[in-house]
Amino acid sequence: MSRPAHGRPEYHKINKDLFVLTYGALVAQLCKDYEKDEDVNKYLDKMGYGIGTRLVEDFLARSCVGRCHSYSEITDIIAQVAFKMYLGITPSVTCNNSSRNEFSLILDKNPLVEFVEELPAGRSSLCYCNLLCGIIRGALEMVHLAADVTFLQDRLKGDSVTEIGITFLKKLDEKKYRRKK
Amino acid sequence: MAIFSVYVVNKAGGLIYQLDSYAPRAEAEKTFSYPLDLLLKLHDERVLVAFGQRDGIRVGHAVLAINGMDVNGKYTADGKEVLEYLGNPANYPVSIRFGRPRLTSNEKLMLASMFHSAYLSLLPLNSSVLVLGNTGSDFVVLADPRQAGIDSLLRKIYEIYSDFALKNPFYSLEMPISVQGDGQVGWYSRASLFTQPSWAPGPSWCGCFAGGRSQPCWLHRSLQPPRRLCSSCNAWQWC
């Protein structure tokens, strides 16, 4: 009897609207709790970081990707495998920097902002999807890659596309955690 | 039992999960008369054989029972010191059971966090080790080398761990995992769902049970009646 070596487990699908509405309620509550946009962005990023550190284990367990050898490979996998797996979209990857450590993910369709018409009046610098930045940052840190993830362009702020910029900083010292042999 | 133990070690080297299944351990019980021709020494609250290997009693084996009663560390069941008891000729002839000492949790922690070839001596002699470590945490499965499908078991354990780390919002990463009983990991390692163990093929003249083999070779195995999983004890049974 053939059985796939890495059996893909069943996904429990939930209603996308429920997820989008939950996220919206989260951001709305944070806006009520904090006056300044920077605070809301910061807390969204922090929450995303906590999610990312856990989500990466699930991602590695279910996607069976091998070891990556370059930053562009990593960004490709984030865009083509991770985003596809969790959000159902496939952003495109561009490389900004000639020294090959700054990349962008261009999202032409973002399911999280489906019901958002526009940002509220006093919230012009709110990064609505900053949770995503935190998730990517947390996930990369768990595989020992320090990165800076921010929104470069945002449709909600009037730009044409939504662009997430990933800047890989120097690789985290893996040896720090290695036991003495 | 094909799977001996499962350990999960975090980035810093601490043990966050362990599961030990029954491992067949070689024990030898013999009757001795005074004077004892083995040299015993006290080490770490246990009485070990230091010299005098013979008849299945090896150096490093611990005194497990005297006259049928299990010893309690370095004291007998009655509370007397083992070495003192064995030094007194009035207590002879005495029957002593030797065997590989059971690992204490401290030793398991050391074994898991400083996985060093020297510590492999504490493991059963015929075992293989498989390690999986993506994000700095290590998953170690000790199993019989003849057991196949260990890498898929390892993958499954990683999936269970990732589910556990995710699902429970109150679980802090890198902290010890507390699970009631054995949990899913125990079930999967006992049931060995993934493949049938592929035992060593028989030689051409196929003396299956000769040479110390306790199982039939792959050829004769296939001729045997089918196996089923016993619902109560999760062991494979022949119909």
Give me some keywords for this one:
heterodimer; A: 181 residues; alpha+beta; Muramoyl-pentapeptide Carboxypeptidase, domain 2; 4-stranded antiparallel beta sheet; 4 helices; 16% strand; disordered N terminus; disordered C terminus; B: 239 residues; Beta-Lactamase; Pdz3 Domain; 5 helices; 12 strands; elongated; endoplasmic reticulum (chain B); transport (chain B)
3D architecture notes:
The complex is a heterodimer of chains A (181) and B (239). Chain A has 181 residues and is an alpha+beta fold. Chain A has a single domain, classed as Muramoyl-pentapeptide Carboxypeptidase, domain 2. Helix content of chain A is 41%, strand content 16%. Chain A is built from 4 helices and 4 strands; from the N terminus they run αααββαββ. In chain A, strands 1-2-4-3 form a 4-stranded antiparallel sheet. In chain A, helix 1 packs antiparallel against helix 2 (37-63) and helix 2 (37-63) crosses helix 4. The radius of gyration of chain A is 17 Å and the shape is globular. The termini of chain A are far apart. The relative contact order of chain A is 0.16. The model of chain A is unreliable at 1-8 and 175-181 (pLDDT under 50). Chain B is an alpha+beta fold and 239 residues long. Among the domains of chain B are: 3-22 and 104-167, 2-Layer Sandwich (Beta-Lactamase), CATH 3.30.450; 29-99, Roll (Pdz3 Domain). Chain B is built from 5 helices and 12 strands. The longest helix of chain B is centred in the middle third of the chain and has 18 residues, at 150-167. Chain B is elongated, with a radius of gyration of 21 Å. Classes of the chains: A alpha+beta (181), B alpha+beta (239).
Reported by name, the CATH topology of the domain at 3-22 and 104-167 in chain B is Beta-Lactamase
CATH architecture of the domain at 3-22 and 104-167 in chain B: 2-Layer Sandwich
Largest sheet descriptor of chain B: 4 strands, antiparallel
**Quaternary status of these chains?**
heterodimer
